[in-house]
Design the sequence.
């Protein structure tokens, strides 16, 4: 078998990705108790970037997934974890909606199906169009259903916690809008990670500027942006060093 050699850029990407994940995992391990919310948890297994964190004995987590059958698998995944609460609800920026339309791919007889499709659901129909070229039977698989909705502020309040240590978000195109709706006057997570890959770059840059102004340092790499409170930065010195040496490695892609 012949292996394609890694380019310098691809190697750097992999190294930075590993470094970010290990830095966050190490920080989590140092906490006596950590309170975490994951918005867009899917089934808790497939391509889950924080599954190992959720399973740590010092972590108490609320995991959010709106799609009924996917939520059922999520609840089953963590059925034996008393520290983990699963909630079937969509988180939206708007404050006046009790339910929202949700668009997703559903398997149909005779149509090509891949389990990856279950991770591409969104409250925005136009977002699914980005995946048309990867879904051979796109039109026959798209389905809309109504799901219960809440806001970040209401979700945070429902936990009964006074603080949130870590917020993980992957909501397929709605991440920046949710970050813009964050109630930072009441809730200031120590670490936030959200997906930026589907976002408008100018809007994302404005959000990053705002985050810096209120006391976060941001590291955008690959698909995601990692936001760390300045008081936590002593635990992330290596990220700061790399950012100073190679600033282009931690900015949103053009």
Sequence:
């Amino acid at each position: 078998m012949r292996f394609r050699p890694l380019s310098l850029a691809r190697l750097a990407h992999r190294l930075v990705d590993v470094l970010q994940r290990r830095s966050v995992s190490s920080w989590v391990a140092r906490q006596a108790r950590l309170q975490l919310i994951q918005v867009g948890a899917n089934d808790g297994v497939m391509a889950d970037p924080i599954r190992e964190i959720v399973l740590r004995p010092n972590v108490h987590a609320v995991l959010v997934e709106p799609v009924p059958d996917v939520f059922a698998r999520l609840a089953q995944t963590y059925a034996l974890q008393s520290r983990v609460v699963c909630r079937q609800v969509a988180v939206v920026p708007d404050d006046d909606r009790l339910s929202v339309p949700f668009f997703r791919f559903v398997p149909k007889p005779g149509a090509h199906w891949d389990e990856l499709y279950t991770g591409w659901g969104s409250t925005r129909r136009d977002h699914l169009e980005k995946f048309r070229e990867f879904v051979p039977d796109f039109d026959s698989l798209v389905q809309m259903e109504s799901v219960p909705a809440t806001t970040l502020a209401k979700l945070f309040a429902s936990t009964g916690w006074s603080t949130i240590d870590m917020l993980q978000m992957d909501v397929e195109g709605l991440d920046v809008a949710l970050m813009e709706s964050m109630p930072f006057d009441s809730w200031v997570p120590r670490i936030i990670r959200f997906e930026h890959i589907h976002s408008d770059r100018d809007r994302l840059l404005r959000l990053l500027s705002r985050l810096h102004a209120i006391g976060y340092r941001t590291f955008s790499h690959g698909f995601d942006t990692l936001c760390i409170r300045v008081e936590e930065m002593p635990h992330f010195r290596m990220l700061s060093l790399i950012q100073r040496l190679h600033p282009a490695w931690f900015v949103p892609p053009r």
Summary: The longest strand covers residues 142-150. The mean pLDDT is 93.
